[in-house]
Amino acid sequence: MMHFTTSVPIADGRILLPMQVEGIKRESLASALAGHRLLSISVPRSQSLEKAWYAQAKLSSGRILELSGSSTETENWAEYGTINVTVSGASIEVDAALSVFCVEGFVVDSIQLLVMDEGRYHIEAGLIIKAADDRVLIVVAGEIPGAFSLKLPDGQDGLDPQFPWQRYGTEPVY
Q1: How far is C-alpha 116 from the chain's CA centre?
Q2: What are the boundaries of each domain within the chain?
């Protein structure tokens, strides 16, 4: 996974900075997660929910979502953060170097992108993974290049987004 995002021209003349997805086709991500329980989120002990560079989300299907961030520099030294998702079928051993946050009763219902428009850039800056009971896991790019922050379904809130929250919108993942 690259630590920067390759920009993609959009038909309307804007430039997309997309979420990077590995291990599964991007258009299959939502359907691959729907209906499965989110069991835990793990973050390296040297990091926090407010400033993470890596996290693992373990699902009842046996899949692991590895989350990381990217930062892409555009003109005038502006940098925009995006999220990377790697889907693995292999179970990753719980390491003593990870803080594990267990999640109870969270069945994935839907997934949305957190997006932001800045000038001519359309930035896929994060993900909202939602359960049918309206609880959410939020992952959003942070202010420090390559970092992201998380809000856990139990309410533990480490959100420290790159931009003010009201500037973000949502879109389906496709």
Answers
A1: 14
A2: 8-158
Whole-structure pTM value? 0.91
Task: Reply yes or no on whether the pLDDT at 173 is more than 60.
Answer: yes
Does position 91 have pLDDT exceeding 60, yes or no? no
- The answer to whether the CB of 87 falls within 8 A of the CB of 77 is no
Beta bridge partners of 99: 43
* Contact present, 173 and 110 (Cβ < 8 Å): no
CA distance 34 to 173: 12
Helix (H, G, I), strand (E, B) or coil at 27: helix
Main-chain dihedrals φ then ψ at residue 31, nearest 5 degrees: -70, -30
d(CA 114, CA 159): 13
